[in-house]
Amino acid sequence: MGTGRHSRLPLSSAQQGVWLAHRNDPTACRYTCAECLTLDGPLDTAVLRRAWARLGAEADALRVVRFAHEADGGLYQVLADEVAPLRELDLRGEPDAEAAALAYAHADLDAPLDLATGPVSHAALLRTAENRHLLYLRMHHAVTDGYSMHLLHSTLADLYTSTLRGQPRTTTPLRELAGLVERDAKYRAGADFEVDDAYWTKRFADHPEPMRLPGARAERADPTRGARPVRTQAELPTTDVELFSATATELGTSWQVAVIGATAAYLQRATGRRDVVLGLASNARRGIAANRTPGMAANTLALRVDVAPSMSLRGLLPSVAEEVAQAQRHERYRYDDLCRALRVPAAEEGPLGPIINFMPYPRHYAFADVTASALNLSAGPLPDITFGLTGTAEDGLTASVDANAALHREDRLPADLRRWTEFLRSVTRRPDRPLHSIDLLTVAERVELLVRRNETTCERTANSVVDLIEAVARQHPDHVAVAGRGLSLTYAELDARSAALAARLAEHGVRREDVVGLAMPRSPHLIVAMLAVLRAGGCYLPLDLGYPPDRIRYMVTDSAPRCVVVSDPAAAGAVLPADTHLVEVTERPTTPHAPVTIDPDGAANIIYTSGSTGSPKGVLSHHRGLANLALDHSARFGLDADSSVLQYVSPAFDAAGGDIWPALVAGARLVLPADPVEVSTTDLITLLRDERITHVALPPSMLRQLSAEGLPDLRTLVVGGESTDANVVDRWAPGRRMMNMYGPTEACCAATGAQVVPGEPLTIGVPIDNVTVYVLDADLQPVVPGAAGELYVAGTGVARGYLNQPALTAEKFLPCPFGPPGARMYRTGDRVHQDDEGVLRYLGRSDHQVKIRGHRVELGEIEAALGDDPAVGNAIVMATAAPSGNKRLVGYVVPRDAAQVDPDSLRAKVRTVLPEYMVPSAIVVLDEFPLQPNGKVDRKALPEPDRPRADAADRGPVTEEQAVLCKLFAEVLGIDEIGVRDSFFELGGDSILALRLVSAARAAGMDVDSRQVFEHPTVGELAEVVRPLATEGGDADPDDDGTGAFPAPPIVRWALELGPVDAFHQSMCVRVPAGADLDRLTEALRLLIDRHPALRTRLVDDRELHVDPPGRADAVVSAVDVTGRSAHEVAAVLEQQRAAAVEALRPAEGRVVRAVWLDAGAGAPGTLLLVLHHLAVDGVSWRILLPDLAHAWAVVSGTDSTPWSPLGTSAKTWSTQLAQAATEPHWTAQTELWRRILRTGGPAIGTRDLDPGTDTFATAATTGITLSADVAEPLLTVLPDRYRATQDDILLTALALAVGHHLPASGSAVLVDLEGHGRHGAGRAVALENTVGWFTSIHPVAVDPGPVAWSTVESGGAELGTAVKRVKEQLRAIPDHGIGFGMARYLNAATGAELAGLGAPRLAFNYLGRLTAGADADWAPAGDDPFAGTADPRMAMPHALELNAIAYDRADGTHLELRAMWPSGVLDEAAVTGLLDALRTALIGFAAHARGPGVGGLTPSDVPLAGLDQDDIDEITERRPDTTDILPLTPLQEALLLHNLITVNAVDAYNDQLRLTFEGPLDAARMRGALTTVLRRHPVLAAAFEHDVAVPVQVLGGTPEPPWTEHDLAHLDDAELDRRADRLATADRMARFALDEPPPMRCRLIKRAADRHELVLTAHHIVWDGWSMAIVLRELFACYADGDDRALAQPPRYRTYLNWLAEQDFSVAVEAWARYLADLPGPTLFAPGLPSTAQVTHDLLIAELPEDRSAALVARAREAGVTLNTLVQLVWAVLLNQLTGADDVVFGTSVSGRPPDLPGVDRMVGLLTNTIPVRVRLARDAPVADALTALTREQVPLLDHHHVGLATIQRQAGHDRTGLFDTTVMVLNYPFDPAEWDAVLGDLRVSDYALSDGTPFPLRMVVVPGRKTQVRLGFRPDAVGGTDARCLLRRAVAVFTALAHDTDQTVSDLIAAASAAGRSPEGPA
């Protein structure tokens, strides 16, 4: 160009993004930007032309004419030398010049734009009046943005003004576009881009869904529709601007940040979503130059703010300001880049929805004396909706809303703008107001939502169906009213018979609102009875005799009917309670019927529905509602005297009323078929046709099975009760009226309805007559129009409530704030959306989601996936609960058209479209679904699945150890069956149950401890570490019989300090088998007492206990006959006997056991009350005693002769060890910790200090609370599993928060005495899992959950997770499980006095674990509350408040009981009750928290090897929410990671590749699945490597699949096929892995022929080594052959190796290497000047030794007593001598790194190998045999130190260099066994395989042993030429040959052989 500027430029990243988006735009005009300047005044157009030309000369963007791909493949923007001139048009002759000008502009905007041909910009000057012009400027978004348009306008105005006036311009010249492009390129190539990338990808690692405002379309409309966004705008009054500024000043921020915060708050209120993602438009320019350059640079920053509804603007803004500041620090990172990083296919599908845009540009520009105002015509596309503010606070603001027309309707935008600006005003006017209190609705909107849409009033002349039916009988007496079961009644007969029966019921005492049951089959008699009950003033209760008898009896007992009308007394009497008063339907009265006045609000019927508690609940409806339903439906469905109505569903179902009463009040014929279970689909179609049915209501599940053809009389079809799919509608709706009715039983079965039309969305319509509906939010306020909310029903149809359940009625039937006084509304629990016409669309239950393994799951999504299979006709998925409270998914399918469905194949198919946690664990194929009487699917009748075949999700045991452990897990956890991958703790285990498991395992001969259970919680993992229990010299001393004197343990001394302990006891009620007798019971207890020394304990004094020998137990059992007594009487006897037994305890005399047998008679099980002194028992002991008692009974009864399980360590031995260890330094050093804890401040509990003389247990008061299963189970199972915590951690956190709320103090810490089971040794191994005694430990803890708002506690907010993590780490910081406190306090005189002086916490807590209650089994705890225990009333109470928690596993789930005890003189009951209420609230909040998103997380104690703090861990898990483990790197991994990072622009030499060729039939999907299974077995293969935390780590988690690509090259000829395959493999090996994007592995499957395939597996060396490759292949082929890993043992965990590595003494290892490298003259470098960071692929030369030479080499090594590896090392040393001239050489070699003493190391996958130096000192005169021996001798001391990192080793040489060597050797002896592979694969065979691995070292020799030994020389061609390399290989072969042929050579001879080979002519080696 003449100007010297470039004629073309590359594109910036911003331009590239727009260019790519334009290519995908079908309209080719969405990315067009345009503005129009209206110039009012005398414009000098000549001057404007000159100014435009000058502007074009400066603004490169105006001169971009097109975009072009050039020959070099690059994309460029082509610039013209001059800007195109303004096009000038005079429109003054047009009728409407302004309209013509805008039409011109819009026509230009709508024209498609071809960027390849251009032009990309256009400018025109349109004259519309004498002194009025429009300057129109249109530019493509690739060359401009909003800021640039302003910059061009202002510069043009300045140039015009300065030219016209002949004065200097006021603006500086514009800068070149090239600078903008260059700065962008530099940024993207620099470190700042990497930092920004890390920030944004971490911030959005969890892929949040974009927010959608109410009214936005769920699906995008046609993208060609509305190419330009739609807009509305309004000027903001000055008062608003002043308000924003003043509030911002008050809150210490800018008005823009205040508006951003207010907008985020608005989005939360409008959507109900706390996680607000809001885009912030940014011009993304930094520096003066960028700000003076027009061009495309704009970006959108994604802000993410947590907005709680309870917050105020003041509370919200600090986090908003910080978020904005962080985002702006990283603003150059483009949103397009973020979408790509998140793997979002298009920016429109990224996390952004709403955007806020501040446009601080002037509204007017001065062209000298002409004023120009700007009008934006198009700003490019929008992903969703943008809230804009244009202008400045000083000059005024214009608010606007721009929206994507594909998502938003234009007519809605004014309301969106008004709602947003009104909210801004409200929230800034009162910045301390809670956000949820701000109403988003106008008065008009409230009227529309609450009033107009509910205008359903319809006057009723009758208020009961009785009056209406009597009127029909008078008008049409001879018309048939009801027919069925061979009987037909006219209306006159119906009237007469119902009147007669009503009279008879009155004679039986039926009065107004008395309940009358109806227990008879469906027939006209039933309709007579229903009407008769109503006419008698009663309330009918339909009882379906097909229901389970227990359910019928419950309904009768609950409703207490006056009588039950029956047609078959015998049949009814068989299922009804015996005392039920029966009335036959045919009984005749003795007196005529006296009409009863019916109260419209009186009870009309009771319908029982399922209850959440497990028992049905009776819904009580009234006459007014029933009459309203009948009249509405008769009119709505068009019923009349000519109609025939089929009543299909059971009359016990509420929907039956929707059939019966509308038909009868309309005078129609009601047809009654047999019960649905008796009617086949064929029978039903026949019935509809033969009876000429005109109206029927059928469930969609039934319609799916019926043919819609051949029913000409059917005019109206009603559906409802369950979802209806489009297929049903398409088949059934044409030719008739199809209605979808919605309504719960509580709203008289119908509340809304809609006609169903094929092709239109299915809705539930609008309310029926006299019913109102409201869509409300959590605060019972109407939601914004278009938003989803919960449906509430009010009006005539609302039932009176639930029978006998006032609390539930009050919960569900709420006062209606929108109706007249006294009105009520029913909370349906259904989520709905209401459109502009008030039509409701059903969205699902608010509780429809289930949670599986911590994931939220929509069952409908899984059902749809199953239904996508063409063989499946219908599918249902159920989440079934295990006894532990966990859930599993079961799928039920009915085949389509008798197709065959294979469950395994279907599961495999579903697994390809759903994540693993959503795949059903079993699929059951049924011929048809069982139906309820109402025709719906009876989900409770669906069969339990058989245990699924072992597969990738859950497989059965393989080894004997696994089988035993599966059985033991099941027994201890109370679960039917266990898989090898089931986690003990995930299924409900805790630390106490772990002790039971250990005890049971030891009894089964397994040596295992509780620590191993925690570290290896699954059966498979634990089976790998258990060992057989030693028969001699095990944990228990054979001489330790537990008898004799021993020191009292700390817990006993603690008790004795409090006073006399004679009555201190625990008791348990146990069920005794029927037929028991006193003699056998006495003998069983004698065996038990003799077995357990603790049951023979005597209290000698306050320091000593004594255990008597066995055989001295006195009679401890007495019997009481309770035969025939009531439960209440038995309970009274039990308490009397308990008191007597406690009184009989004499610990000083050794009387510590007393038992009472409550004999219930010969045929009934009795109860054994066991009362044990606390000296002999604790909570864990009961779990040992009861199974042993059962075993003792079996021995006495002669039914079991198996020996007792071993006992383990006795209490005597344990206590003695504690006393001996108490003065050891390890324990005394803990004193400072206990001192610090006891000095912790906290809330004051109690009104005064404890007085030991006054505050005894005699003054104790108690109370308690019980938490139901829905709260307890998440607390005890879900949260401990998710947080890897104990139940103590969760319960203590809740307790601390409750105490802090109820008793506020200066800090958040609470001092607690924490009880634990105490079964830990004092530094010595003990086995206490099967030992009975009192081992309890008590130690103080300072529990500090940190500040958490109480509202957060109540709502279960995310902050509770932080609190749990804090407390968990505080408790983990207590050493040795806290037993050291008791030792210091009671067993060490020096420390005991000091600690005693510090006092004790005033609050104590003890979690006693889980007990089974109410189990129907002998020798199990009996009754609902079997456990009890109290202290001696004379003992001083040690705490102001004690809380004991115990979990009872009952039939309806696990319940948690919390019992409080306190001295009544220190606390009053109100204070304790208040605290318990707060604790209940906190625990309920924690249970809610367990159901929230993203619950759980790791803490430092979970990943101790990683060395990270909580912030680092949170940073990682926020990026990777599915993290399961974080591991450190091995030294070699650290080196490989560093290498990967510093060679970012080069080939990574550590990409390993395996190529395998298969012959035979290969199933690609099966092979891919097998590889995925291998990755799941060895998660380290899919590790992500994080380096931007304190120390580099590898992160495991999720179920990633390796990238898999398939290529079909079978059509190519062999030569081309080989070339293509090699090219693909090479490309894979050359492509770098991003090690922070797992997995670092990829796979290609190349089809070479129909039965010939090549598998190319490429992985980074950082996750595996050669040994691991062999394991991976072996497992891959096994999984392929079997379809899963059932035949494979549980793999050892890589963590085990890292644990071993951390335990090694590195100082010893380093010293060994230092000695080895001492006096090394220097490094041995082959290519010292080679750049270390330049990565060049090796060339490879291969020589093959003949068979005889290969065999001779092996023989030479064997003769010398060395390995082939040693021989190879000597050869390489000789070659290095030739290359360097040195005799003392060093080079690298690879070692396996697998310590032989590590169990399972031979089956472990991961990087265990290491590169270590080999030093060889060549003694030239030494015989070769001596040289080999010396080599071995020098390396033997290093065998235990191969794990030390190479960098550390090299530093020991004392040379200031980075490396000791640059050549390496290795012997490739990986355990590859092709014969084994082929044996496993069957028809498939591995015909060839090749391994390619790399190294950064320039020279490497690899020797591959075999029949013909291979010598491979790899070399970098930039380090050594091909000729030299071939020469070196010849030398190597020569030395190997010399070694093979002559055993008596010296080292000099080898050197000579190498030298001679080097001088020989070049040729084959």
Write the CATH homologous superfamily of the largest domain. Nonribosomal peptide synthetase, condensation domain
Using the alpha-carbon principal axes, give the shape.
globular
How does the major sheet shape up? Answer: 9 strands, mixed
> How many domains is the backbone divided into?
8
CATH class of the largest domain: Alpha Beta
CATH topology of the largest domain: Chloramphenicol Acetyltransferase
How much helix is in the residues?
A: 25-40%
Mean pLDDT: 88
| Distance, first to last CA | 62 Å
The computed structural class is alpha+beta
Biased composition (Basic and acidic residues): 936-956
GO biological process, one term: secondary metabolite biosynthetic process
Cofactor: pantetheine 4'-phosphate
GO molecular function, one term: phosphopantetheine binding
Keywords:
1965 residues, alpha+beta, Chloramphenicol Acetyltransferase, GMP Synthetase, Chain A, domain 3, 8 domains, nine-stranded mixed β-sheet, six-stranded mixed β-sheet, 71 strands, 22% strand, disordered N terminus, AA_adenyl_dom
